[in-house]
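Hi! If you just cloned this repository, the fastest way to understand the data is to look at a raw example. We've pasted two of them here, unedited. The first protein comes first, obviously.
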Amino acid sequence: MAQEGRFTLRWVRYFVKRLRQGKLSEVEDERKRQGRRRELPSIFTAMLVGLTAGCKSLRAIELLTESLSLPVRRRLGLKGRIPDTTMRDALVRQHPFEVRKVLWAIIEDAHQRKALEPEGFPFGVLAMDGRDTAVDCWDHHYAQQNTHEKTYLSYGLVRTLSCCLASAKAKPSIDLVPIPAETNEMGIFPHAFESQVRRFGHLFQLVTYDSGAASKKNAQLVVDWGKDYLFQINDERRFLYQRLKLCFEVDKVERAQTETLKCKEDGKVVIRRLYLLKAKEGFKDWLHLRTALRVNSQTLVGGRVVHEEDRFFISSLKHTALSYGQWLALVRNHWSVENNCHNVWDKFFQEDSLPIIDKDPRGMVVVMVLRRIAYALAALFKSVTQRSDDKRQMPWREFFERVRDVFCSASDSQLLPLPEPQAATATS
């Protein structure tokens, strides 16, 4: 019981304080003044309460706002139930850029608290990756119109670029960049990268990306900003891929510099081996390329190899800047954006199957930003604020259930050390 009480106090105190640091009241409300029933900070607060409690629909969030305990309601500044229609009408009218400011403020606050310090690396690492979500509508900006290759039916595709601080213990999402319908990952990379450098350049030195943005132009852009890159090269038709493959064959690199072994629950064993070379002349005009990497992955079942593949990477970082173990960890850490972010959004938030708003592309993107805020809050709490390793490794499903219980049952005695809010922001 004492442990439950500590979790309750710690989570509510953390959540209330982080929302204040998020500066919800500074987000520009694009609704008409006439007819507003709830102020925007109250709606955002309700959404974040629902998302951190694992709600997957506006109706579920509405029911949760009705079930909040009175002490929690007072400290959050919420007065009564917030209808799902009110939330939807407000969300579809907001601009994603304005909502992203809340995420930026929370990340900057985490930096000030030293909650984003690099772990296992001498510098910060930003992992970027694209993400597509199919919907039944399109607006030719936030959702691109596509045609199914078999049924020939039209559908919309909401494309975004996820930014994850992969070097931090919590691996939080620090931004979401919408990809306009007229471009792609390769084309949006300069804008997305420059915006991250201007806003969070102090948090990272190296950016990682898969082959979706690996080009000489993008690599040069990274170097021109005084940063380093690690890009994957996987198109066998490219000269660079063939040159990398040839270099590792000509140099007869037979012994891996380091390797890792992972035993999975299904009995499979995965062995990853790193082969690293100092880049030589001959990579055409990639003058900033200093290190080439080959990662060989083998999957074994019962001691027999059932799958094997080679992946090639290039970096502007000197080969001596990291240990061999750190280089392999850097390659693996890129997938933090997939394993720690996308996996949670798909498996637990069910973003693809239950996007909450699916008939308005802009409103859908706004909800996606709010979901990143909720994930950042939860991930930072789990990995940094929680003090024991067991609590930090709590499964996500259990975490959401405990948060929901706290919101619905926390009493005054459990929250006594928490001050009352100075001013409620629930209604106009």
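Ok, and the second one:
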Amino acid sequence: MINLPETTILNFFNKVLISLTDLASTEDCSINSLINQCKSIVSGGQIGNYESILNYCKIFGLIKIRNDSVTISVLGQKFLDANREQYFEINEAQKQLITEKIIFTGALNHYARELFEFFSLNQSSFLYELSISDNLLSNDHEKIVHFFKYLGILQKHDFIIRVEKKYSELVYQLMADSKGISEQQLEKSLIENRKLGAQAEHAIVEFEKQRLKKLGKFAQAELVKRISTINVSAGYDVESFNGNTDGIFPDRFIEVKATQGTEIRFYWSFNEINVAKRKKDSYWIYILREFKESDLSFNPVMIQNPAHNINKNDYLTMEAQTFLIKETSKVPLSTHSLEELKWFKLKK
């Protein structure tokens, strides 16, 4: 296992990369030349063990070493570009790059997996938290916490360690992927889910058009559209209308969830949750159970304002690490219909 570096080592990365680019013009990028170049640059009286520093630069993927020759990598160039002023001290943009490309998806992600196993989701703030009073961390875990705090991944508030909001989605993805499935299995699953999701979204667009036409809102029915193909970060899939006005601006935003089973069970991303919290009663989740593209007789389960109603009821649970929402007991649903058109709603 790779040893976690001291935070002071990170501040030498800029000196290494700047020195490497300077040497590139002389075409003398040997290890010894690079070390001598780094030593010749005075930086606040700091003296580093450059053999160790170069090794970490290699492990982090910032440089490549072949035989005795050193070259900068694509990631290393991005790291250097994030330091336009060419300061030797690491800046916030570079800390974020290390976090995203090395901590969560690179050479040090096992440290993130190991630490975040102790964290749980605060269902009020939708942030990952760790109570220090309830969890005694080992010295090794304390070192990881210190390292992550330096990078800005974690914040400490009294006896609570909290993941910075902008990294919550990365924690979710990291822990959701910790099942250990193969890359081929994951890719196959993603393709199947995308196909099922697209079919379900098309079905809901048609369902909404029918619902609005039954209400006599023909103009609004023509304006219902699938938004997920236009804006993947919208936080919902379909723009529609409640049908109680004649307005031409959408006032019903629908996230479509399809399952081939009978129970209510779906994944809900951080982005979708945040959009749902902002839009409140205008945001709906439509769930298609036992969905098949060839079967057009489906009756969706509708959850209005899910950010409020899912947490409010004890017959649905949200698993913190994977955001898997599933039934714990029979979900009470109310039946609604417009002539032959039928759907179900989660009771408040």
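That's it. A detail worth noticing about the second one: The domain at 7-103 is CATH 1.10.10 (Arc Repressor Mutant, subunit A).
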